[in-house]
Design brief:
Blueprint: H1 4-15, H2 22-32, H3 48-55, E1 70-80, H4 81-88, E2 107-115, H5 122-133, E3 140-146, E4 149-159, E5 167-179, H6 185-194, H7 196-203, H8 208-219, H9 221-241, H10 251-273, H11 285-296, H12 306-318, H13 333-339, H14 354-358, H15 364-382, E6 388-389, H16 397-406
Parallel strand pairs: 2-3
Antiparallel strand pairs: 1-2, 3-4, 4-5, 5-6
Helix pairs in contact: 1-2, 1-6, 6-15, 7-8, 9-15, 10-16, 12-13
């Protein structure tokens, strides 16, 4: 059974990056995930120059390593098959020799690198990861700290088809921009999925090679996409099922009504990702809107009205309006208080249709599920590169809309976007 307490422990471990030196905080996080070893080497001094002296004496690292951006670097530990076996038995490391062996191929090195800047692109972090991995015969996982965020980088390796004595570096996978003080739920979920106990539950690995395969499988973009689409279908069907039977709507009409609602929310996520929507200064717009509603709307305990009071005002009085843009009019100010800072889109997906006027309201619990289990678990996190291979990502909101409209489990409709 999954251990829900581990998710809280992961969140607590991330807080350590705010108050402890990077090497200590990174060690605590990895230990929380079930990865520990006494086998290590001290990088002295723990700077880019010290790292090069120990591991790159021939100065192979080039500009993509961005050495001038390194504030500190530490070798945390080395995991091998022996640690894997110890972890599975719930024991401590079985090593007698406590010094890392950088020639041991069936292993993984964990480094922590603190960068001077606050924000780095996926290309920047992937470039550093790729450059560092060229120096070693085994995979190197990097824990980056930059500003108030942490990113983890893992690279896939395989044996060369032309020369079995050589490894080929493949794409870098990033768990990027984890906010230490208030981590996104998607980041907690991904770290949880990468924990040793969860990987063993899913894959029953018995050695280091199988553990590495489990990492790659868990972080494979197609696997994440499949997980997203499974959740999308489950939540979509839950939402469709709450439409009252007393309306005597056909199955097709229910699907189109639900589909249009989901499409609108996903498009709002797209706008949110672009930074075009803000509520009380927050860019996680839909979450901020829902939290304000829960806190301040007195009607919330009597009937489901977030859909009616906030979303319908957003859809048909804000993003669109039959009489044009009303945002500068004094009479519009109470609406702005309900929906925040938004653009005027004028039509399209936010045209009010007959069923929008007379149709059912989705209850608050359904909307909370959409936001918590779908939007802020998968879709919104894609903009933050929460877990993406270099050059690819989780489904974008537009991709999710296309997928639903074309009907992964139903026929395409002309009423979609």
């Amino acid at each position: 059974m999954p251990n829900p307490d581990l998710k809280y422990a992961i969140q607590d471990a991330l807080l350590n990056f705010e108050r402890q030196p990077l090497a200590e905080a990174a060690g605590v996080l990895l230990n929380t995930l079930g990865y520990r070893s006494d086998k290590t080497l001290r990088v002295s001094p723990n700077t880019a120059e010290g790292f090069q002296t120990m591991f790159d004496p021939h100065k192979q690292l080039k500009a993509d390593a961005r050495l001038d951006e390194w504030k500190s670097v530490d070798l945390l530990f080395q995991i091998t098959g022996e640690e894997v076996g110890a972890a599975l038995r719930g024991q401590e490391s079985l090593f007698v020799n406590k010094e890392a062996d950088t020639a041991l191929i069936q292993s993984c090195l964990f480094f922590a690198v603190e960068l001077k800047g606050a924000a780095y692109s996926r290309k920047d972090l992937a470039g550093i990861t790729h450059a560092v991995n060229k120096l070693f015969p085994m995979p190197v996982m990097l824990v980056f700290k930059h500003g108030n965020a942490v990113s983890l980088a893992i690279i896939a390796r395989r044996t060369s088809r032309r020369d079995a004595s050589r490894d080929v570096l493949e794409k870098v996978t990033l768990i990027k921009d984890i906010a230490c003080a208030s981590p996104h739920r998607a980041h907690i979920e991904i770290l949880f999925d990468l924990s040793a106990q969860e990987l063993w539950r899913a894959y029953r690995f018995t050695n280091f090679s199988e553990l590495q395969h489990a990492w790659e499988k868990t972080l494979d973009t197609s696997e994440l996409n499949n997980k997203f689409f499974r959740e999308y279908r489950r939540i979509f069907e839950e939402a469709e099922a709450v439409i009252p039977a007393t309306l005597n709507w056909s199955g097709e009409r229910k699907r189109l009504y639900t589909q249009r609602f989901f499409n609108r929310l996903l498009f709002i996520v797209f706008l949110e990702r672009k930074g075009w929507l803000k509520f009380n200064g927050r860019r996680d717009y839909l979450r901020a809107l829902f939290e304000d509603y829960v806190k301040n709307d007195p009607e919330k305990r009597r009937e489901a009205n977030f859909h009616r009071k906030r979303l319908n005002n957003l859809f048909f009085m804000g993003l669109n309006h039959p009489s044009g843009d009303k945002r500068q009019e004094a009479a519009y100010r109470p609406i702005l208080g309900l929906i925040g800072d938004i653009p005027f889109l004028n039509g399209g997906l936010f045209d009010e249709e007959e069923d929008d006027r007379d149709g059912p309201l989705f209850p608050d619990p359904i909307i909370a599920t959409i936001l918590n289990e779908l939007v802020y678990r998968f879709v919104a996190s894609a903009s933050r590169n929460s877990c993406a291979r270099s050059g690819s990502s989780l489904p974008s909101p537009r991709a999710a809309i296309r997928w639903r409209v074309r009907g992964r489990w139903g026929r395409r409709s002309s009423h979609g976007v």
